[in-house]
Each structure stands twice: as C-alpha cells, then as structure tokens.
Amino acid sequence: MRQQRVSVFNILNGLFLLSLSLTVILPFLYMLAVSLSPASESLGGKFYLIPKEMTIEAYRYLFSTARFTHSIFNTIYITVVGTTFNVLISIMLAYAISKKTLPGRKYILYMMLFTMVFNGGLIPSYLLVKWLGLLNSYWALILPGATSAFTILVMKSFFQNLPESLEEAARIDGAGEVRTLWSVVIPLSMPIIATFSLFFMVSHWNSFFGAVIYLNDSAKWPIQVLLRLMVIAGDANIASENALDFELVGKVGDNVKMAAILIAMIPIVAVYPFLQKHFAKGAMLGSIKE
After folding, report:
1. Are 256 and 61 spatial neighbours (Cβ–Cβ below 8 Å)?
2. Of which family is this protein a member (predicted)?
3. Which of 78, 102, 231, 264 is the most exposed place for a label (fewest CB within 10 A)?
C-alpha cells in the first residue's frame, strides 16, 4: 500500500514538473518558430510551434544592418571588460578585507555595510558620473557598479575559510601577497569566482537602464536598448542612422523581433553550461562559515 502511494506521488510529481518545464520551453519554441517563418506568415499573429515555411530571412536582415551588429559588439565589449574589471576589483578587495591584520578593517566593513542600507539615488549618481566625465562612455556602465558589498562579504567569508597553512607554506617558499593570491587563493576559489562572474556577466549583458541614462550616442547602445526600440517602442527601421526614426514602424514582421530576442539570449544561455558545475558549488560556499 505504501509502495502504491509513493508511485502515485512520483507520477503526479513527474506530471507537475513536465507541465512546469513546458511553460518555460514553449515560449522559446514559439519564438524560434516565428523567427524562422516568413514575414507574411508572422504578421498573421497566429500561434504555432512549427512554421509552415522555414526561412532565415529575419536573421539575414538583422546581421545585414550596421546598427544591430554594432549593438552586439558593444554589448560584448561591455560584458567582457565589465566582468573582468568587476571580478578583479572584488577579489582584491575581498582578499584584503579577509585579513584581520588589515589596518582600519572594521571601519571599511562598516562603510560597506552602510551601502547595503542607503543609496544616494539616481540624480546624485548621474551628477557624479557627469562630474567624473564619464557621460557617453562605456565606463559609466562599469565603474559605478564595479562591485557590491554583498559580493565582497561573501567572497571574504570564502577566503577566510581557506586553510591558512596553504598561504603560510607559500610565504615560506618566498611568495608575496600578490603571488599567494594569484597562485594559491584564486585557484582554490574558482567556484565562488565563477558564480559571481556569471552574476556580473548577466548584469552587463542585460544592461539597459544605465545605457539609456548615460549613453547619448546611439552608436554606443548595447543590444538591450535596441531591442526595446524594436519590440516595445515599435521602431522597425533599425538600419536607419537615426535611432528614433519611426518611418517604417510595423512594416517588419514579428519574425525579426523574435530573431533579435533569441540572438540576444543565446550567448548567456550558451555560457551557463560551462559555469554550471562551479555555480552550483559556489552559490552557497561563501555564505557558510565553519
């Protein structure tokens, strides 16, 4: 009787998980089907998962426009440079804070915790970026969010849990702080580094609000800003040099919009499997203190 109840539960649980998975997968399949369909078929607004006629004209159109390809390169540049800068700053600051012999360590921790509770707001942040001369620069999207108190505290906890004997052995061999950090601490900290690298990467790849606020030149816009013009604002004329040219609104079908969304999603989706094993292990390691 007990075995029968367990089997029924397994069946119901499997059906629930299957339906939950379908609610996630079906929208992606729909977008893929629409992106591979002709413009005349996508304009009909019908729901289908298999296009009657498959074509890559939407993708060909997107990659033939300079604005779309430039936005992709802009996003790649912001993501690579921003993620590298964020990870380096976070590692160096967290490693320094993890040392109890650091002068003023307590006050630095208090200042970091203060930033988790209070925020200057949008207008002061904009004025600061303007005063630093970073307006219309990619650094306006990177420097203000170089790291966060949460990232530093989790990394600090992870570094403190590493065996001190390893660092002592490195110093006995003549290694300094930089060499110890590079050769001993970082290789042992790859799970937590990969976890926050993924966080930073997703944040930069999806950067939208900061780009709208700080970047006035449409040639420097990342892909998310262009997607907003195409999908929400309805600007289908992405080949135009004028970023706000609505002359051809509605003349491009949903196949182009769906293709643009998929192209913007694929890089992050493709990177995650390579970091998944580190992500699953490092998501909790830094938050547990032995």
Report:
1. yes
2. Belongs to the binding-protein-dependent transport system permease family.
3. 102
Look-up of token digits 């995650």: 272
Residue 94, token pair as written in the block? 């967290």
- Three-state DSSP class for residue 141: helix
Kindly state which CATH superfamily the domain 60-285 is placed in: MetI-like (1.10.3720.10)
Q: Comparing C-alpha atoms, which of 58, 108, 82, 124 is closest to residue 263?
A: 58
Q: Which residue do the tokens 């019908």 mark?
A: 46
Q: What is the pLDDT of residues 36-63, one digit of tens each?
A: 888 777 666 565 677 777 888 888 888 8
Sequence ranges of the domains in the chain = 2-57, 60-285
Beta carbons within 10 angstroms of residue 222's beta carbon: 28
Residue 110 near residue 171, CB atoms below 8 Å: no
User: Helices 66-97 & 105-117, crossing angle to 10 degrees?
Assistant: 140
Q: How many CA atoms lie within 13 A of 90 on its CB side?
A: 29
Q: Which two tokens stand for residue 159?
A: 């570094």
| Angle, helices 254-285/2-35, rounded to nearest 10 degrees | 140
Q: How far, in Å, CA of 3 to CA of 135, rounded?
A: 66
Q: How far apart are CA 111 and CA 130, in angstroms?
A: 24
Alpha-carbon span 234 to 264, nearest angstrom: 17
Distant-in-sequence, close-in-space partners of 58: CB < 8 Å, separation ≥ 6: 35, 36, 39, 253, 255, 256, 258, 259
| More confident call, 77 vs 249 | 77
User: Which conformational region is residue 38 in: left (phi greater than 0), alpha (psi within -120 to 50 degrees), or beta?
Assistant: beta
Mean pLDDT, the chain, integer: 79
**Using CA atoms, how far apart are residues 2 and 150, in angstroms rounded to an integer?**
46
Question: Residue 65, SS3?
Answer: coil
Predicted model pTM = 0.80
